[in-house]
DNA sequence: TTGTTTCACGCCATATAGTG
DNA sequence: CACTATATGGCGTGAAACAA
């Protein structure tokens, strides 16, 4: 869905150089289609759209990638100076005119209150979207303010992600093992009764260190709530203490 | 040649050490 | 205090490396 030729519209200013950035996704119905096909062909089915999309991009033969029918939303661009665009919103509209796809649900908000209302409006609606989403990005619109705010080493100070509450499941800690890292660091890892959360089988989760175990009051044999932080990293959210029956064992490194 | 294992990658949380 | 830089952890995936 990235056109081979941009700027078919006449009268549009064309920069000498344009770099666009976006997020590739695999729509829910395409994910289903691929898995149905793979089933018919006796191939293993994919676990979730996110990882299927990632795998599709890693194909050596672009024909394979194309057959997966990935899609993309462009969310930003860097153009050589001559463009005369002063805000993010303007830029996105320009990119649409240039022939690129952007997310149709962008909105300008004038206050935090408005932002909050918008976020709440998607809590339920997001299930009706043709793709899976885990949140909304809130950005400062004016490029001048963006420049003033600047960025840290990894994150801009003018944008932040709001994440919807992630899917949560309950399982049991079967054991706590200590893993030895490359540098010799010892890290306790919870071995869980495998549980499916948002399309992944979670069977391990790091407990980081002894302090963290004490903070969360985790014991071997505990029932715990788990989720995938950032939709990816398995994390023990909390211990369900009401379900303790005395068989739980304190862990020491 | 075939099957298995390892690796890199993207994603984020948490921690430590160090800088200014 | 606000960072930067780095390390570590887990999952799913395809490719590469390895073993049989």
The first-level CATH class name of the largest domain? Alpha Beta
Average predicted local confidence, pLDDT: 86
Major sheet summary line: 5 strands, antiparallel
Query: Any idea what the radius of gyration is?
Result: 23 Å
Helix fraction by DSSP (H/I, runs of at least 4):
25-40%
Number of domains: 2
Report the β-strand fraction as a percent range.
25-35%
Outline, from the CA principal axes? globular
CATH topology of the largest domain: D-amino Acid Aminotransferase, Chain A, domain 1
Number of strands: 9
**Low-pLDDT residue spans:** none
CATH architecture of the largest domain: 2-Layer Sandwich
Provide structural commentary:
- This protein is of the alpha+beta class and 253 residues long.
- The chain contains seven helices and nine strands; from the N terminus they run E-H-H-H-E-H-H-E-H-E-E-E-E-H-E-E.
- The strands form three sheets. Strands 7-6-5-8-9 form a five-stranded antiparallel β-sheet, with no helix packed on it. It has a two-stranded antiparallel ribbon with strand order 1-2. A two-stranded antiparallel ribbon has the order 3-4.
- A hairpin with a 2-residue loop joins strand 6 (186-197) and strand 7 (200-206).
- The model has no long low-confidence stretch (mean pLDDT 86).
- The chain binds a DNA duplex (20 and 20 nucleotides) through residues 46-48, 50-52, 54-56, 58-60, 152-154, 179, 181-183, 185, 187, 189, 199-209, 211-212, 228-235.
